[in-house]
Specification:
Number of strands: 28
Strand content: 15-25%
Helix content: 25-40%
Structural class: alpha+beta
CATH class of the largest domain: Alpha Beta
CATH architecture of the largest domain: 2-Layer Sandwich
CATH topology of the largest domain: Nucleotidyltransferase, domain 5
Number of helices: 16
């Protein structure tokens, strides 16, 4: 395709730290991008919120910046597609005005209402057996006990802010809120709505609201989006006033899109069944496509609808990955109240990389647990906390920094082990591998953490897997959104995406580090077994 024939997507990657707007070709090449930070408001009692107005202003500012850069002609921008942080809630009135701050995926206020839902004598893993059977039958999962799912947010608003609940016309996910601001249409996709746990996903061609599940929650369906659309559906043309403000043609199509986890799965290039990817950003996750519906309630795993219509995927998110390094930077090394703090912080992440390279694997047996705000998978436990174990006087900050890199990786290994067990039987039957072979022998890695080559190598060593560093990994979500729009608008097919994704470098496990990492991972699991009850007493 010649340059004159190339078309482009305005891809909005709306993460927790702030939105990024990018101009991406229909073949996945990122031409230009801009980012603007948005604040997170953490309050007492487990509340974590953001102002939707901050989101929208930042999206407009960054979108205008890349459109006005002139790197592509406006008439060649054929679509807009947004991907946002998942598992959030924005209450809106009929005119699309938000009634309060958005409750985001870190908020735990809903935990007590999910606990109330699960009251009963007969329980499995904390769930009421009768009710969880209803959920699993229809959704392959159920509302997580940490209360961070949107249904937990809505129950919190209903119980603690009844005036907001009564005034709310619709509750929207962050992604669906941005789409509403772009088009004026209240809608959700079959992907974005899933963590409300009120849809029946047994037939992927007919995902719909379940009256039984809505009745269990006692939530008014009329307060949820009326239409459940496919991720590739064209939601509508962009609103004229928005088009004029951004400098886009008024006929530019807005494609439904999907939440960040779904677009990352596509943008990583690992879109075949049992092909996995790791995301390392503020949080981390592992996901892979699978052909079946299945549930592992003990480890909080279940098949969910993919952004690719007619397919499932499985995986889960963990609370903090790179966020542990941000905590070290902002709360210890360069605290905001420190009179010695520089006006402009240095690029500490590159400094961390150089430091970590000087410390032997295993950090002298120092172990860090990254559970600073609890954990959601493979254990759903809001009370556990982070810590440094086996810290001794001869150690320095160099050991601590490497231990943080390694501790995040041990946590990911814990999650990988349960995901591989979840799909092991299928892979053995379908691919004929031996029982002792790795179920997922290689993983693509994306996100800001994937820019660190030393961290990629640590992942390879700890997981004992080949790690494939996706080119320009921080743009994966934007590319994933652009790929969805490209498929929707007829510029690309799903099976062509993998060849569009470039791999920058492949990291293979260093066998010399196998023994120390196997030993420390075993002790990492022991820390949770030993300390879990203590954390529960301290933080319940």
């Amino acid at each position: 395709m010649s340059d004159s024939e190339l078309k482009y997507i305005l891809a909005i990657d709306h993460g927790t730290g702030g939105p990024k707007s990018a101009i991406v070709s229909t073949q996945g090449e990122v031409i230009d991008w801009a980012f603007q930070e948005t604040p997170v408001h953490a309050l007492k009692g487990g509340a974590v919120e953001q102002d939707p107005e901050d989101w929208w202003n930042a999206i407009k500012n960054t979108a205008k910046k890349v459109i006005e850069s002139g790197k592509v002609k406006v008439e060649d921008i054929v679509g807009v597609c947004n991907t946002s942080q998942w598992s959030g809630t924005v209450p809106l009135d009929k005119d699309g005005n938000h009634l309060m701050n958005a409750i985001i995926w870190m908020d735990t206020r809903g935990a007590k209402y999910i606990e109330k839902l699960n009251k009963g004598l007969l329980k499995v893993a904390g769930y009421n057996v009768r009710k969880i059977i209803s959920f699993i039958k229809r959704t392959a999962g159920g509302p997580a006990q940490h209360g961070k799912d949107p249904i937990g947010h809505i129950l919190t608003i209903k119980s603690e802010l009844p005036d907001i609940y009564d005034r709310a016309y619709k509750f929207l996910e962050p992604q669906d809120y941005v789409n509403m601001k772009l088009t004026g249409i209240f809608a959700a996709s079959t992907a974005s709505i899933h963590l409300h746990w009120v849809t029946d996903t047994r037939d992927l061609n007919n995902i719909h609201y379940s009256r039984k599940l809505l009745k269990l929650f006692k939530v008014d369906q009329n307060k949820l989006p009326p239409d459940l659309k496919s991720t590739t559906d064209i939601l509508g043309p962009i609103k004229k006033d928005v088009a004029d403000e951004l400098g886009l043609d008024k006929n530019t199509k807005v494609v439904m899109g999907a939440p960040d986890i779904h677009t990352a799965t596509i943008g990583s290039g690992a879109i075949g069944d049992y092909e996995g990817h790791i995301y390392v950003g503020t949080s981390d996750w592992i996901f892979t496509h699978i052909p079946y519906k299945k549930t592992d309630i003990i480890h909080n795993l279940g098949s969910i609808p993919s952004a690719i219509p007619g397919r499932y995927m499985v995986g889960n998110e963990q609370q903090l990955a790179g966020g542990s390094l941000s905590y070290l930077r902002d709360n210890i090394l360069y605290h905001k109240d420190d009179l010695l703090r520089e006006e402009a912080l240095p690029d500490v992440y590159k400094i961390f990389d150089r430091i970590v390279e000087t410390v032997p694997a295993g950090s002298n047996n120092l172990i860090f647990t990254p559970w600073l705000i609890g954990e959601r998978s493979p254990v759903d436990d809001a009370t556990i906390r982070g810590g440094l174990y086996n810290l001794s006087y001869e150690m320095s900050r160099e050991h601590i920094i490497r231990a943080i890199f390694e501790g995040v990786t041990y946590n990911v290994k814990w999650l990988l082990s349960v995901i591989e067990n979840f799909i092991r039987k299928w892979v053995i039957n379908e691919r004929g591998i031996s029982k002792n072979s790795p179920v997922i022998p290689e993983l693509n890695i994306i996100g800001g953490g994937a820019q660190s080559e030393i961290w990629c190598q640590i992942f390879a060593d700890v997981l004992d897997r080949k790690i494939k560093q996706v080119h320009d990994p921080i743009q994966t979500n934007a590319r994933g959104a652009a790929y969805i729009a490209s498929v929707s608008l007829g510029y690309l097919k799903w099976d062509e995406i993998e060849k569009c994704c470039e791999i920058s470098k492949i990291f293979t496990p260093n066998p010399e580090n196998r023994k120390v990492y196997d030993k420390l991972f075993k002790e990492y699991l022991n820390i949770y077994k030993i300390m879990g009850k203590t954390y529960n007493r301290l933080n319940k």
